[in-house]
Amino acid sequence: MATRIVIDPVTRIEGHAKITIQLGDDGKVVEARFHVAEFRGFERFCVGRPLWEMAAITARVCGICPVSHLLASAKAGDHILSVTPPPAALKLRRLMNLAQIVQSHALSFFHLSAPDLILGFDSEPSRRNVFGLMATDRELARGGIRLRQFGQEIIERLGGKKVHPDWSVPGGVREPLTEAGRDAIRAWIPEVKATVLDALGRFKGLLDRHRDEAECFGDFPSLFLGLVGDDGTWEHHDGPIRVVDAKGIIVADRLDPQRYMNYIGEATQPDSYLKFPYYKPMGYPEGIYRVGPLARLNLCDRMPTELAERERREFRDRFGTASSSFLYHHARLIEILAGVEGIAEAVEDPEVLSNHIRARAGINRLEGVGVSEAPRGTLFHHYNVDEDGRMLRVNLIIATGQNGLAMNRTVRQIADRYIDGPTIPEGVLNRLEAGIRAFDPCLSCSTHAVGLMPMVVRLIDADGRLLDEVRRG
Amino acid sequence: MSVHTLRIDEKDVSARAGQTILEAASENGISIPTLCHLEGLSNVGACRLCLVEVAVVGGGTRLAAACVTAAAEEMVIQTDTDRLREYRKMIVELLFAERNHVCSVCVANNHCELQEMAVSQGVDHVRYDYLEPRCDVDLSHPRFGLDHNRCILCTRCVRACDEVEGAHTWDVSGRGTLSRVVTDLNAPWGASETCTSCGKCVMACPTGALFHQSSTVSEMIHERTRLSFLVDAREKKQWHA
């Protein structure tokens, strides 16, 4: 008999989602899908608001990665003002973004995924969480929590508060870094560097144990997209966009983020509030690409700091252009290391203490795009304003949405690998969720499609007869 | 000068003829919540937050707005009763329900008298359905902006413009929940021929309804005491430090 398995909600992720698996009469998987079950609507209700408020409004999209929206929005604002923020403002924004990447990656790895990786996918579910991790490996859990605190504290020292700082604005930033703040950040560096190096060592040691998962957690060829420095160095805030293929060959380079619509299309699906971006020249769904830590590591030529570059080389030697989404975890740890090293360098630059941090201007352009690398991947804010600076149109392309197609394929791959017949062990259900967790999706960030979604509503009676059907789109 | 003697909150106080209950209370260290009242401007009793209970002959009390009720001989007044606290809380909740006050992303967040009033009156949620009206934002003025979503119709801007600046650019159009502050005859602010761009209306505003252009969230700090400074300087030749 055909069976439908629903995992609702998917746990230890940010936001609300479910997974459905449809089994055929033979007990084999017919279809497996990942659905985002929440809707936010920022693209609609921001219309009419002043441009000046957009950074702080869109920061409210997310409590985990408000900084990513704050920065992308401020950059879109810079463009509309036609200003280049003072150098100190750009350095401070970059510093906050590194802090954001560190704290968000630490949350993803230590709080959400380490229970699977350290305790095991089949371990007792009631203990397979951060509290179980604390009981098993107190120092690892503590180090992870402290690592997140480090990132959050930098955000607070710059922006006044840990969550939803109103700090980055069109033209620059509102507050400088104080000497006391700089010194406090500096004091953290040895501890957090040791934490991430320890975690990296352990993760690499676990790879053999999880070889089975690594082979089916979204291991497939796809494009990878992300920002990259002018010289090909790993980048998180500025620079052009690069697209590489599954073999690491550059498909497109030096793409102007302002013209993203020339090369990124957005599709909608009837069963999810996600929009599904794709690389336009290859069409939908063939233009599937992945963003985020794995993509950034795959597409850059080098890391900007010594230890992170050493880790990237080892990663590259071992996996080539990594295709398994399981390796997002590995890439995430390397990025935390890059973040810690980058922060250590940034605070030694005397210019971060400058008070010259904000350029003032009025509305000089009616359209602007801001792009930054959020922890989960490339984030686009695209605004159109009227001549007074009121929002006319808002388009947000969110990292998690860009990984939507890949997450669907991951769920299918894990279902095919582990499900055979209607009796499904709990550990298999957990692997389906863990496949999603590898992407560290942030669903509340990503669900902004409105009025676009093709939808079918069917009214079916108890005997399964179709009484009515309504279609949209 | 004749002086009245009255009781406020069980305390004997005196008030000069013509003083309001609010002024008499204030001079005697008794605090009454206000929102539409602003030192330097006339009083209109618009917000009703300064309601007090005045004892009536024969027993019971009547409600009076302290800012527009003259203190009188032998008045017995209560400023802080269960009934008043409930009404004040209700008034603040209704102000929130009437427009779209989204504190977290408002330019006046943390510098807003409505927000402070909600905290001081113990408003932890709003019991009424939000009207969620569609309100415009006017950014046509080169220096200032107007967001009707945040306006509580206190009319401080109307009075500041009329009484202190003398331009009378501001007024109120419409009735009830459709009332809106307007410049000139409901022209865009930037097109107003009477506005002198002095900014006194912006100084007076208790919320994020009037703000400086390019203010980002929680960045708008109103200089409300500047108005009483100007009035005292002009009328009393006193320049406060």
Mean pLDDT of chain A, as a whole number?
89
Q: What is the approximate shape of chain B? A: globular
Secondary structure tally, helices of chain B: 6
Strand residue content of chain A: 15-25%
CATH C-level class of chain A: Mainly Alpha
Largest sheet of chain A: 4 strands, mixed
Provide the residue-averaged pLDDT of chain B: 96
Task: Please report the distance between the alpha carbons of the first and last residues of chain B.
Answer: 29 Å
What class do helices, strands and sheet pairing of chain A give? Answer: alpha+beta
Radius of gyration of chain B: 19 Å
Q: Could you give the order of strands across the largest sheet of chain B?
A: 2-1-5-3-4
- β-strand percent of chain B reads 15-25%
Helix content percent band of chain B:
10-25%
> Which stretches of chain A are low in confidence, meaning pLDDT under 50 for 5 or more residues running?
447-461
- What is the CA-atom radius of gyration of chain A, in angstroms? 22 Å
Largest sheet of chain B: 5 strands, mixed
The helix content of chain A is 40-55%
Overall 3D geometry of chain A?
A: globular
